[in-house]
Specification:
It is a single chain. The protein has no helices and 11 strands. The chain has strands at about 5, 10, 20-25, 30-40, 45-50, 55-60, 65-70, 75-80, 90-100, 105-110, 115. Strands 2, 4, 5, 6, 9, 10 and 11 form a 7-stranded mixed beta sheet that branches. The chain has a 4-stranded antiparallel beta sheet with strand order 1-3-8-7, with no helix packed on it. Strand 7 (about 65-70) and strand 8 (about 75-80) form a beta hairpin. The radius of gyration is 14 Å and the shape is elongated. The protein starts with a strand and ends with a strand.
């Protein structure tokens, strides 16, 4: 079974930086994309950043120029470096992996990691 393990969340001051990592394990036929969603208190879950197998990236307008998602050392591992963090970035961040499997299209999710930006 595919599992996604997230790490790197924590408490940081406004203007600070934090790096999140996500590693997927298990058998995957084809990875279409990986990335991060976040759940800000009181708001709908939103896509923060995504990276495709071709290494093209997409970012929410609110994080462009501040967040960077990239491939890690392992094939199904991604890292998101978050700079110039704002209190509005406080959220639970969820890693996802969109895959094509023999049984069909499947999305896998991590359990979430808390990021808190506060002075």
């Amino acid at each position: 079974q595919v599992q996604l393990v997230e790490s790197g969340g924590g408490l940081v001051q406004p203007g600070g930086s934090l790096t999140l990592s996500c590693a997927a394990s298990g058998t995957i036929l084809r990875v279409n994309s990986m990335g991060w969603y976040r759940q800000i208190p009181g708001k709908p879950r939103e896509l923060v950043a995504a990276i495709t197998e071709g290494s093209s990236t997409n970012y929410a307008d609110s994080v462009k120029g501040r967040f960077t998602v990239s491939r890690g050392n392992a094939k199904n591992k991604i890292t998101m470096h978050m700079n110039s963090l704002k209190p509005e970035d406080t959220a639970v961040y969820y890693c996802y992996l969109d895959a094509a499997e023999v049984a069909g299209m499947t999305d896998y999710w991590g359990q979430g990691t808390q990021v808190t930006v506060s002075s």
